[in-house]
Amino acid sequence: MIGDSTLGGYLAGVCPDSGRTGSAWWCSWYTFMGTVAHELGHTWGLPHPDVFIPGFRCADSTAWSNMQCHWGFPFDSLLPFEQTHLRSLRHFQYRSDRAPYELLSIRGDLGPDVVRFNAEGDSLLWIDGRGGGTGYLWGLVAKRLKFPGLDGWFAADLGLPRGSRDSVDLRIVVGRVERYRRRLIPGDPPLPVSIPLRRGEVIQLEGSAPVAWGNARMVSRSSRR
């Protein structure tokens, strides 16, 4: 949504500069990147700094916080109390030698017919739905996938690639047991899917036509403890 709002300004010809850093703040590449970081800060419990520092303003402060000055991204920062709060959250506390998940878009054994989106270049995997749909930096588009799992879960946001016109029948088989079956309808929003796995079990994703798997990943059970 944030990216589309900026792109729309370029396409409509209302941004003063067609480059990545438009001279109007709302057209800047950095503004909507900073907005994503700003909203994530709220998700993790950070308020605007003027809640604790009355009268805090970016223009007359030497400490630029993303929670107040997001148009300055990536040259803004976080205030000391904001950093302390984030470091206290369990989401950011795990052993560096225990990877929390494995993105399937960086695996090398998924077959030649799989389209990968892995945050390289300017491509996004789009799944239609409410509004303009949802774009994923990481994901796969495939009619069939087959790979060994780990001790944990397979998880993804499931949908049809943008522009799909026909419904698709999908099933997920783990070992020889069918774990999931669904008919995907064009225009439906992405659907979160999580399938439990045991190490070595082979998981097969079978569609009657290509299916989009946003942020497809395998989550280790040990990382959830």
Mean residue pLDDT: 80
Q: Runs with pLDDT <50, length 5+? A: 18-22
Please give the number of β-strands.
10
Judged by helices, strands and strand pairing, the structural class is: alpha+beta
Radius of gyration: 21 Å
The proportion of residues in beta strands is 25-35%
> What is the N-to-C succession of helices and strands?
HHHEEEEEEEEEE
CATH superfamily membership of the largest domain, which one? NPCBM/NEW2 domain
Number of domains: 2
* Total of helices: 3
Distance between the ends: 33 Å
Helix fraction bin: 10-25%
From the 3D structure, determine the CATH topology of the largest domain.
Jelly Rolls
Largest sheet: 8 strands, antiparallel
Shape descriptor: globular
Architecture of the largest domain in CATH? Sandwich
- Specify the CATH class of the largest domain: Mainly Beta
